């Protein structure tokens, strides 16, 4: 690969890292060609972009970012690396990895590291926690539900109390007659 080609790849990676605040770096070494194709197909179906890139190019692209990604240098950017870009859905790649493992019966791909809104997670032990993160839409839904709950309680209380009050008044008026 020439310097010009490397510069183009680094530029593309910088654009991807800037546009996607959530990305995962995985190791899919040891997978067969069929398994790799299956992983790529699953990524495509889920709207996740998967690219295999040299570690040095990833490192140079991350150096150009505003955030500090130096913890990735020592532990994450070693060996075979593939990058999963997920856009706004931070937990989609983690769920995809777990789903792929279940289907294939293997332990690959391995999570080497992830960046979720510039927070770094290094190591396979973070996969379960990352898969349980709630998406922005889920969090907004929960907030709306919480905000609606007191209003529903007041309305149901008024409706219930109003019915009781009407019943009491009716009983009292019948007693007077």
**What is the radius of gyration?**
26 Å
* CATH level-3 fold name of the largest domain: Alpha-Beta Plaits
Beta-strand content bin: 5-15%
| CATH-assigned homologous superfamily of the largest domain | Ribosomal protein L10, N-terminal RNA-binding domain
What top-tier CATH class of the largest domain fits best?
Alpha Beta
Overall strand count = 5
User: What global shape is seen?
Assistant: elongated
Give the ordered list of helices and strands. HEHEHHEHEEHH
Q: Counting H and I runs of at least 4 residues, what is the number of helices?
A: 7
How would a crystallographer describe the biggest sheet?
5 strands, antiparallel
**Helical content class:** 55-70%
End-to-end CA span: 101 Å
CATH architecture of the largest domain: 2-Layer Sandwich
Function: Forms part of the ribosomal stalk, playing a central role in the interaction of the ribosome with GTP-bound translation factors.
GO molecular function, one term: large ribosomal subunit rRNA binding
Keywords: Ribonucleoprotein, Ribosomal protein, RNA-binding, rRNA-binding
Organism: Roseivirga spongicola
Describe this structure in words.
With 177 residues, the protein is of the alpha+beta class. The chain has 2 domains: 131 residues, 2-Layer Sandwich (Alpha-Beta Plaits); 43 residues. Helices cover 59% and strands 14% of the residues. It contains 7 helices and 5 strands. Strands 2-3-1-4-5 form a 5-stranded antiparallel β-sheet. α1 crosses α3 and α2 packs antiparallel against α5. The longest helix has 41 residues. The radius of gyration is 26 Å and the shape is elongated. The relative contact order is 0.14. The model has no long low-confidence stretch (mean pLDDT 83).
